[in-house]
Input
Amino acid sequence: MTDDPPRDPRAPATQAVTPTLTVALHPPQYAQILTLPAAARLDARLAHLHARTPDDALRATLRDAARLLGAHLTFRTPGYRADAHPWQADTALVGVSVRRATHLLHLRAAALHAPGAVLSAVSCWPGGTLLIARRGVIQAQLNLACDLDRLHLDDLNLDDLSRPGQGAPMALHAHRLRPSGQLEQWRTSGWPDP
Output
């Protein structure tokens, strides 16, 4: 799937039109077009998207929401369209600072937990996203609904989440959707609170 070219967020708006989001739960046999306030009942972060949302934040949030919902999502405004699907490979956050990734994904304050507790919890979650950072930079973004990504959980050191010879310990941030559309978030001490 090819992405549309990025748009200039400073470009003048041609008309005030409410953006829509098409949601097709996987497998996509049925799709529904929702306004963003209605889509926010599925994932509250979708309410923050609008026609002037910077392209990187819109795409990062849309891809993460698609993974968490297990749905194909299409954001539309006049002259612009962005698509995301649940199994889309996403390396856009790798190499990005933790603070920038937190901003792009619209993450809020998360409960602080011990690393072993975070890994134990996410190993039981049927879906979600696990961000792994070292020295304040995202190293991996795992889709917990994907069995291949779950294999990486076994590679993490449960004791202190640090690798010998690499110095800085890892920081983890895990999130999944609650039925209300709000995120349940867990983080370790190395992950800054926004």
Q: What stands out?
A: The mean pLDDT is 83. The longest helix spans residues 55-69.
